[in-house]
């Protein structure tokens, strides 16, 4: 009985660990992709501002 409960306990901990890893990896991925998108957006905004200043 204790053997089976320890196995189920281990499974629960493994599942929680895997879910935690997925959450961390996905949040880091979203953070990096968001930073990349934000950097491109800032660069595009700066280029647009420079062009508008250069034209006027």
Helix content: over 70%
Radius of gyration: 24 Å
Q: Estimate the global geometry from the Cα principal axes.
A: rod-shaped
Distance between the termini: 81 Å
H-E order: H
What is the percentage of strand-forming residues? Answer: under 5%
Overall mean pLDDT? 91
Unreliable stretches covering 5 or more consecutive residues = none
By oligomeric state, this entry counts as single chain
What is the makeup of the main sheet? Answer: none
What class, by secondary structure content? mainly alpha
Number of strands: 0
* Number of helices in the DSSP assignment: 1
How many domains would you count in the coordinates? 1
Protein topology:
Blueprint: H1 2-55
Transmembrane segments: 7-29, 35-54
Keywords: Membrane, Transmembrane, Transmembrane helix
């Amino acid at each position: 009985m204790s053997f089976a409960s320890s196995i189920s306990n281990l499974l629960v901990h493994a599942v929680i660990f895997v879910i935690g890893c997925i959450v961390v990896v996905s949040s880091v991925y979203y953070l990096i992709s968001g930073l990349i998108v934000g950097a491109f957006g800032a660069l595009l905004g700066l280029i647009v501002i420079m062009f508008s200043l250069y034209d006027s």
